[in-house]
Amino acid sequence: MSTYYESRYASSPSEVKQLDTAKLREAFFIEQVFEADAIRWVYTHYDRYMAGGAMPVTDALTLDSIDLLKADYFLERRELGMINVGGEGLVLVDGEEFELAYKEALYIGQGNRQVVFSSKDAANPAKFYLNSTPAHQHYPTRKVAKTDAEVVTLGALETSNHRTINKLLVNSVLETCQLQMGMTELKPGSVWNTMPAHTHDRRMEVYFYFEVPEGQSVCHFMGEPQETRHIWLQNEQAVISPPWSIHSGAGTSNYTFIWGMAGENLDYGDMDFCAIQELR
């Protein structure tokens, strides 16, 4: 097995205003999340958030610490959340096994020493989309299926944003230190997510787009409300969203995305909304 990681430094709004397309993508775009028989990470200095993927095919994958963490084991001072976006998989956490089907989530608390990922079928491997944040105390490991989620339906077909929000790893479902994760599914005929747009200075976010049909794309909008930029993404790619930035998208088809966030608070509703007609 192999573990790969890269580090992304934080950028200020004034700096981002000067970036061309290539530099904008270099700072915020995560092009490859999954690689067969590997764990990939991107470490961002926004709240020291880590986003990545584990894709076990022929071998089981062990979650090892990386040099950047200066820790004896990965979860020594971190917590971990994941959602499986592939075939059925297994996660072994300090001797306890959890089975994750498609779109099921797992939270693993700080202090667990061994985490091992495997697939039930190499021909249809699991794809564990991973998010990790610093943690100050241990909370119990827990699997969260879609039936356990807090579900909210928003928008309408008339405004092209009819969507179902599945709150999976959030404080209304289970306890975490700061990590929150969920999944938003766009209804057929709807393409806009997180519209009206918003910002939240007390936490950052990462969006992972999947179920994007072949030949289609998603245009992710970011930046200050009066100074927006855009990044085009394909299936199973991700983008980092700073606290000062909006995070919204429109696809050439409907799609699903996973949102993960961390920061100072656990209040899902802590948002500063931006009027649609005032975006620039």
TrEMBL record:
Tagged with keyword Metal-binding: yes
Record has Metal-binding as a keyword: yes
GO MF term list: 4-deoxy-L-threo-5-hexosulose-uronate ketol-isomerase activity
Keywords annotated in UniProt: Isomerase, Metal-binding, Zinc
SUPFAM superfamilies registered for this protein in UniProt: RmlC-like cupins
Reactions that this protein is recorded to catalyse: 5-dehydro-4-deoxy-D-glucuronate = 3-deoxy-D-glycero-2,5-hexodiulosonate
Reported cofactor(s): Zn(2+)
Pathway where this protein functions: Glycan metabolism; pectin degradation; 2-dehydro-3-deoxy-D-gluconate from pectin: step 4/5
Positions annotated to bind Zn(2+): H198, H200, E205, H247
Matches recorded under Gene3D superfamilies: Jelly Rolls, pectin degrading enzyme 5-keto 4- deoxyuronate isomerase, domain 1
Alphabetical list of InterPro entries matching this protein: KduI (IPR007045), KduI/IolB_isomerase (IPR021120), KduI_N (IPR027449), RmlC-like_jellyroll (IPR014710), RmlC_Cupin_sf (IPR011051)
EC number annotated for this UniProt entry: 5.3.1.17
Note accompanying the cofactor annotation: Binds 1 zinc ion per subunit.
Protein family membership: Belongs to the KduI family.
Function recorded in the entry: Catalyzes the isomerization of 5-dehydro-4-deoxy-D-glucuronate to 3-deoxy-D-glycero-2,5-hexodiulosonate.
HAMAP family attached to this UniProt entry: KduI (MF_00687)
Protein name as it appears in the record: 4-deoxy-L-threo-5-hexosulose-uronate ketol-isomerase
Species annotation: Chitinophaga defluvii
Biological classification of the source: Bacteria, Pseudomonadati, Bacteroidota, Chitinophagia, Chitinophagales
Name of the gene: kduI
